[in-house]
Each structure stands twice: as structure tokens, then as C-alpha cells.
């Protein structure tokens, strides 16, 4: 049984070894280590422990990349086979459930672990720089390896359970949010209840919540890494976080093995005739006009006027709930209440909600800008239209901009009513931080559009990971330019190089997007 299961796993590993992009990625990871080393060398005069600073940057960069890999790479291990309807073929070939899970998930986890282990010899440079010991390096790598196994197996479980890759990605993303923010949210919740006198430290509810929060902190890789990166760390490599992550990951793998057959049964999809008849009766009265592509994107992919009305209602009700509910809560709260809700703070919270909604909507729209055409193999038909590929892309973006009207109007209203809220949101010593935020958002959307036509799933994770890598690689050069031009141009010397670099990257990405679409059109 296990011999047959390991055959498919070994075949996947051998296939991975023969791929050139795998070795290129490993060399890129090593090159990234040296770039961050150069950045730490530039700032070594301002820190007492340059080795610890260098290793800290590497560790947190690996943490974010592993997290994004779980969202975009591990979570599609089984769902991509479901969507392509190749699972029955794999079963007919005699591949059992254990072999399939090992070959699709364990091999992917092995790739990421090998990337981490490949950095280990070069990370020893941090010991020579000072401020860190080899024991801390081994402990940090061990914590990250255990976290990789946890992420890989939990994502495998979500991939087995979900029917589509989008659902699996959403489940993994929600789990990550709860995993990292649950202790903070529950701590704030307990503080609020305790300040109002609803609970005391002796209550069973209080004790149970505190125990749950403490357990979440024990298994959290972020808390473990923060402890490891403190000066003088001498605990064992096999920490509580490592053991619990391995046990939870193993449990997720066995659960995925148990529910695999039940969740991958092919069931006939019944056609809902009533819905089709209702759709035929409810035809749209508007006509495309000259901007047919923008009309199609607005009405069919972004929801049309109904979605506009729904989003306007949701955003308006959210703002009224935050502002009105906060003022009422502040009015009837005792003076010893921990948080005092003022008008300015409530408007700031509403603005943060709207800006977050704007970013989320842009992310959703740009991640699927050419997804339907590629899935239905309609890109060759688009290429024969009397319009250039870039003109089609711009018209698609125009349709999405119409769908963004509710959130944009809401942001403008908040800024007009309370202008200070915009300055408070981007107040960090640089008054031009709002411009930097817009520049980075535009660059991120370009990356998201490009990866949406390069990879089948996980474009969001690839785009976010590329932004993190670019920020890590560009930091030394931005520091040099700021040292050269900061005294002369002041604040402008910081964001002008970033602006020109982002503008050049957007221009290059637009060329790559056009070439990729033409390549897809010629291949299909």
C-alpha cells in the first residue's frame, strides 16, 4: 500500500528536480539573502546588532512568503484537479487517495522547505555580523518548517473540502485571519467587558477565554519567532509551537484523507429552470452602445446597477452604524471606559472601512479581468476584434471603475465632512504618504493583472509576494537615493525615486501583459 503511494510522490519530486524554474527560484532566494545583507550593511551604523537585524528581515520575509504560498499554492492542490475534471482519470490509473495527497501536497511542502533549507548556509553570515547565535538560527528555521507543514496540510484539507479553488482560497484566508488576530480581538473584547463590569477575573467565561488566547499564542509562529529573535535565547529547538504545529498539520492530513472520497464524488448538476426563466424575463433594458466591452464588464462581471444599489446601501449602513453606534455607546458608557469615541475617531474608522473596501473591490475586479475569457478560451476571439489588446484591457478597467463609484463617493463624502480624517489616516511623518499608497496600489494591481493570466490560481498571493520581494530588494537603493537627495529635496527625495521606479515597473508590466495575451491567443 505505502509502496504504491510513495511511487507517485517520488515521481512528483523527480519531475520537480528536472524543472529549470525550480532551480532558478532557489538561486533567486539566495540572491535575495545577499540583497538584504547589503541593506543591513547600509544601516549597520545605526544598530548595535547588524547580524540580528539581517536575520530578522530574512525570517519575517520567509514568514510572509510561506503565508502567501499557503493561500495561493497549497490551497489549490486538489481543487485544480476537480475543476479540470481529472480526478476520475487519476483514480482509473490506480492512484489511491494517500498517493494522490502525498503527490499533490507533500511534494509542494517539500519544495518550500528545501527553499528554506537552501538559505541556511548563507544565513550563518549573520553570526559573523554579531548579535545572534547559530542556535537561534536553527530554532527559527525549525519554527518556519513546522509552520510550512501546518499551512500545507490545513490548505490541503480546505482544498479537499472545497469544490472550487476560489472557495478554498477564501477558507484559508479566513483561517489565517482568525489564527493571527483572534488573540488580539479576544483580548480587546475581554478588556471592554471587564471595564464595564460585566465579567471579573474569577468568572469561568473569563478563564476559558484567557486559556484559549494563551493556547493560540503558544502555537502561533509569530510569537515563537519574536521569542527566538530576542537576545540571549537558549531554549530548545523543539518548542511548543513546533510540536503543536506538527501535530495539527498531521491531524489535518488524516482528516483530508478520511473525507477525500466523500468530497470528491462527482454529482450531476441539476439545471435550475426557474432561474433561467426568471433571467429571460428580467432582460436588461440598456444597450451596449460604443463601449460594448465596458458595458459587458459593468453589467455581467461587476453586477450592474443592482450591485451598485446593494453596495451603496451596505457602505451607507456601515458608516451610519459606526458613527451613530459609536456616539450612542460613548454617551451611555461610564467615564472609566477604556475607549472614548469622538467624532474624529469615528470618521477615521469609517474612512478606514471605505479605503479597505476600495482595495478589496479593486483586488477582486483586477484578479478576474481576463479570467472568464481565458477559462472559456475566448482570448483568440478578442484578438481578432478591430481593437488592440490594450484598448480592450482599458475598456474593461473602465467598466470596473463604474462599479467602484459607491465606495469612491463614500470616501469623498467622508473627506469633505471631516478633512482631518484623511490626514490622520496617512499621518506618519510624511505628508506625501497618501501618494505613495496610491502608487503602490497601482503597481500591485498591475502585478495582479499580470499574474491572473500567467497562473491558474493564486494570482493574489503571487502579486503580494512579488510586492514584498520588490520592497525588500528596493530598500537598499531607496536608502541610497534618500541619503543623496534627502537633504536637498527633503520629503520629495523619498517618494520621487519610488514614484519613477513604480511608473517604470507599470510600463514594463503593461508590455508583458500585452505579450502574454498575444501568446495565449496564438497558442489556443
UniProtKB/TrEMBL annotation:
Keyword line: Membrane, Transmembrane, Transmembrane helix
UniProt keyword Transmembrane, yes or no: yes
Domain of life: Bacteria
Transmembrane segments: 24-42, 54-74, 112-132, 138-161, 168-186, 242-260, 314-334, 346-366, 400-418, 430-453, 459-485, 492-513
Protein's name in the database: ABC-2 family transporter protein
Organism in which the protein naturally occurs: Gimesia aquarii
